[in-house]
Amino acid sequence: MKSLRALYLLSFLFAPLSQSQDAEASVTYEIEILIYSTPNFKTKEIFNTKNTFLIDSEKVVELSSPPQSINLTAMSESFKYEYKFSDIFKNILSIETSEEKEKVYSTNSGYWFRELNNGNSLNSLKRRILRRKDYELLDHFTWRQGAVDIEDSPFVYLNEDGKYGLYIKTYKSRYLHLDVKAYLESENDSNLIKLGNKIMAEDNLRKFFIEQTIRVFPNEIYYFDHPRFGVIVSIKDKA
After folding, report:
1. What 3-state class would DSSP assign to 128?
2. Where would a tag sit more exposed on the chain, N or C end, judged by fewer CB atoms within 10 A?
3. Mind listing the pLDDT tens digit for each residue in 206-237?
4. Whether the predicted model's global pTM rises above the 0.70 cut
């Protein structure tokens, strides 16, 4: 009898935790990023840079931009359609039904990791950067994604050849985290070296690095900066 009571108590305690984890896995976040550099920055300071960083290429995704097109043939054919049933239904004003279908929401309906029109959370900062002569805006990205555990969450890879590269992972352990790995290119040509399924960034081509993992909260803005460049991240809860 005692064992049954203990089992019931354990199931009661852990059921809310399981439900909470499932709910967190279905949350969609909107990530908005500004990447900038300070090309005129000069200093005698010597920065400590690492020789390489390794990222599993199988856990890297790039934002998709599905092509938008119009099927002109289908459009043309639609105008040739002749409605033949108007006489049958001319005396029927409306058809009503009380049956309601249950709405089903997918945790990922195909819109995760799809590049969106730029968000508006960072617009004021973007305008400030564009007004400053000592700053250069490199890029502005917005997309939506979920956040699962650190092993299953991919890095999103953003880059422009000859300028910068950025790997950013949004994941949840007990709390929400951002893992940011970024580099600013030197004047040399870009050259990513692949060792098996690992991507290596050479220090002689990438002089300036940012590598930081922090705990974050939804609906806030975070800075990852280096004297030569920086990354600004807005993360919003869209669930």
Report:
1. helix
2. N
3. 578 899 999 999 999 999 999 899 999 999 98
4. no
